[in-house]
Amino acid sequence: MAQPWQPLLDWWFGSATSPDEIAADKGKLWFGKRHDRQAHERFGDQVEQALAGELTDWAQRPEGWLALVLLLDQLPRMIFRDTPKAFSGDLRAQALVAQGMAAGFDRQLEPIQRVFIYLVLEHCENLAVQNEAVSRFIDLVREQPEADRAVFEDNLDYAERHQKIIAQFGRFPHRNAVLGRESTAEEVEFLNRPGSRF
Length: 198
Prior knowledge:
Blueprint: H1 6-13, H2 19-31, H3 36-51, H4 62-72, H5 74-79, H6 90-102, H7 111-122, H8 127-142, H9 149-169, H10 176-179, H11 185-191
Helix pairs in contact: 4-6, 6-7, 7-8, 7-9, 8-9
Protein name: DUF924 domain-containing protein
InterPro entries: DUF924, TPR-like_helical_dom_sf
Organism: Pseudomonas tehranensis
């Protein structure tokens, strides 16, 4: 009998086997906007359950833990894009990731799956957590065969860019408008630069 989280993992990662193939197949789902409606239609109910503190039994196994993290971190950013609710699962996701990493769950996942655990750290507006994200991505790159490193090096680059923003501002300026935060003059100048938004 299939586990309740399996449809989400199948949708998110597909059936390809190499990291390059998975990223090529699923990159637009992960980092585009075209699949927001599909995310809502297929998994909106589970996202609401996760945000309400339900589905915690999923976190007893690495794959279920990963799926619950996706429901709290990635899918709200799709389903509730450009609203404060997009970030409403962040604190719960961060706590869940910390617990799972302490249990070594991340090391039991496929490397490309681990990316979405460490992205939770990258999303945090806290420099110590950002430093941890960069450290985890560095380790992930080092652990891969040379042929598979490109995808993970790209993720490391993004982690370092996020880290620099938090080191400079203590928060992500591109979230200010959505969260009703007033931007400083320095942040406004930053936001006018190309590539300042994620």
